[in-house]
Write a structure and sequence with these properties.
The protein has 162 residues and is α+β, with helices and mostly antiparallel strands. 33% of the residues lie in helices and 13% in strands. It has helices at 2-17, 40-49, 63-67, 105-116, 150-160; strands spanning 25-28, 55-58, 72-73, 76-79, 85-89, 132-133. Strands 1-2 form a two-stranded parallel ribbon. Strands 3-6 form a two-stranded antiparallel sheet. The longest helix has 16 residues, at 2-17. It is globular, with a radius of gyration of 16 Å.
Length: 162
């Protein structure tokens, strides 16, 4: 439900920011073994149906998700011109059935800062992505091979405090 409600807004945001020099790509790391509806054939149809103007890649081995410590869908990562990670967080505060409009507000703050060559505004509090868990391949080692440290957990909790 999280990705479904954002598809149109993600496509619109990409069309707005790509002419400004932002490269956009999406990666699906869900297992097509356990969720064939998330496989490459369906992804191609989904990209066409939603008017994606960016590459939509399939992480068949799930190595990309593990390397970036992705846990849910959708999850947003923003890199500056030097490929330094400048934002990892939510699209906005909209959630299924919470009545908030889908705006991309959080990602827009990060994008605008990156385009201006500046840091995130001091008053901006990035919030972690929230969504459905990545559908991992079955078998040993199916889950992420890392556990967040106590410091990472405290940082996430601090980001989530209102």
């Amino acid at each position: 439900p999280f990705v479904v409600m954002l598809k149109g807004a993600i496509a619109a945001l990409a069309m707005e920011y790509q002419p400004r020099g932002v490269a956009v790509l999406a990666i699906s790391s869900n297992s097509s073994q356990t969720h064939p509806q998330d496989g490459p054939d369906k992804m191609a149809k989904d990209a066409t149906a939603n008017g994606y103007t960016f590459s939509y890649l399939f992480d068949e081995s799930q190595a990309v998700a593990k390397a970036y410590r992705a846990a849910c869908t959708p999850e947003f990562y923003l890199f500056d011109a030097t490929l330094k990670l400048t934002y990892h967080g939510q699209f906005d505060d909209a959630r299924p059935n919470n009545g908030k409009a889908v705006t991309g507000a959080d990602l827009r703050v990060a994008l605008d800062a990156a385009l201006a060559g500046s840091a995130l505004p001091a008053e901006f509090r990035p919030r972690p992505s929230i969504g459905c868990n990545i559908k991992w391949h079955p078998g040993p080692g199916a889950r992420l091979s890392w556990q967040p440290s106590g410091e990472e957990v405290m940082q996430q909790e601090a980001l989530m405090d209102p």
